[in-house]
Amino acid sequence: MGHYHKAITIFLICSSFLYPPTNGYIKIKLKKLKPNHPSRVMSLTESSHSVRARGEINPNEPNGSDIVLLKNFMDTQYYGEIGIGTPPQMFTVVYDTGSSNLWVPSSKCFFSMSCYVHPKYSSRMSKTYMRNGQYAEISYGSGSISGFFSKDTVKVGDLVIKEQEFIEATTEPGVAFMSGKFDGILGLGFKEIYVGNATPVWDNMVQQGLVKDPVFSFWLNRDANEEKGGEIVFGGVDPDHYKGNHTFVPITQKGYWQFDLDDVLINGKSTGYCQNGCSAIADSGTSLIAGPTSVITEINKAIGVETFAGQLQSKSEELSDRSLGTMGVSGVDCANVSSMPNISFAIGGKEFVLSPHEYLVKVGEDDQASCVSGFMPLDIPPPHGPIWILGDVFMGCYHTIFDYGNLRVGFAKAA
């Protein structure tokens, strides 16, 4: 998440309404609120990136560590409602394909102000609660979430996942989580980046036979004039939300939904950056498209970046504590849209084109609106980087299938 700096934005705030399962899959319908002020364009959170996550029996005697990457632009996310416990206690969570844990605030959270502005899980109120007690911590640039593991029933729509492990957060960073529009995070990444030794929510859905097929898919509505924000389908795909066929590419490394990126092009011309190979991840937990500074600078120059709407900075605690560098979210003149180039990503032998109208984030109403580039620099050091993060700006244009059974990800033009 980075150190807290001047806020810049939100372009989509969403909460969900749940649909009952149909033909072995379940739809989660997302609703969005229209952004109405430039200060909400990325507000409160900056971007989060590589973080250290630690699960321990005794917080004073660490005996192991795992690396996890959480990327959340709180206030620029798609949210959905879940229930934990019997009877269900309701929480709004980010559906994040860039992490694997589920966490919500705990009733035992007494010393973090953010816990007092969100609902808190109470084990005493649940008939199906099972004690675990193992210590857990997930560290962000702006602070850490810490707490302990518990087990309980988790309800997503009409799907009921039994004995699901999750983190009861007893401490949270102040400003970011206090003002966030969500209560917790539901990770949809692979078990390899799970903090702890249990099974993630999605894996349990599959193992407990709750979905027809081991597939889930995202449709994110980018039309600012529509209230409907999008859908997540667990166990299948809704053909109403894409055109043509999906282009599938294999997962190259389990953890994040990571795949090979063939090229990055400006107005159809290769930047040459991927001559020696590129990696990318499809990440619903990141609002913009993030990539190496050198290429993002070239793209933003071609777009006509005028100002930095804000500066974001974070440190990687992943392997070396080296700084990831300064991250900028860049302002552009909305009046110049017609002269801006298309930006394309070559994936699986096909070019996925983003027009200026698709990659610009427009904040505000009509004549008072301001525009922000959908491209943001992020340098993740080796061995995990460099890497491109194709967040909501990309996934909003291209319906995305996360095919867990065949270890592949697929993209088709959203409809």
How would you describe this structure to a colleague?
This protein has helices spanning 174-179, 201-207, 293-303, 356-359, 392-397; strands spanning 13-18, 26-33, 50-56, 66-69, 79-84, 89-96, 102-105, 130-140, 143-156, 159-171, 184-187, 215-220, 228-234, 247-250, 258-261, 263-266, 269-270, 278-282, 289-291, 307-315, 323-332, 343-347, 350-354, 360-363, 370-373, 375-377, 388-390, 398-403, 408-413. With 415 residues, the chain is mostly beta strands. The two termini are 31 Å apart. It contains five helices and 29 strands. The longest helix has 11 residues, at 293-303. A hairpin with a 7-residue loop joins β1 (13-18) and β2 (26-33). The strands form five sheets. The chain has a seven-stranded antiparallel β-sheet with strand order 1-2-13-12-28-29-14.
Layout of secondary structure:
Layout lengths: L12 E6 L7 E8 L16 E7 L9 E4 L9 E6 L4 E8 L5 E4 L24 E11 L2 E14 L2 E13 L2 H6 L4 E4 L13 H7 L7 E6 L7 E7 L12 E4 L7 E4 L1 E4 L2 E2 L7 E5 L6 E3 L1 H11 L3 E9 L7 E10 L10 E5 L2 E5 L1 H4 E4 L6 E4 L1 E3 L10 E3 L1 H6 E6 L4 E6 L2
Provide a quick synopsis of the model.
By secondary structure, the chain is mainly beta. It has five helices and 29 strands.
Q: Which key terms come to mind for this protein?
A:
415 residues; mainly beta; 6-stranded mixed barrel; 5 helices; 8% helix
Q: How much strand?
A: 35-45%
Overall helicity: under 10%
Structural class: mainly beta
Task: Work out the helix count.
Answer: 5
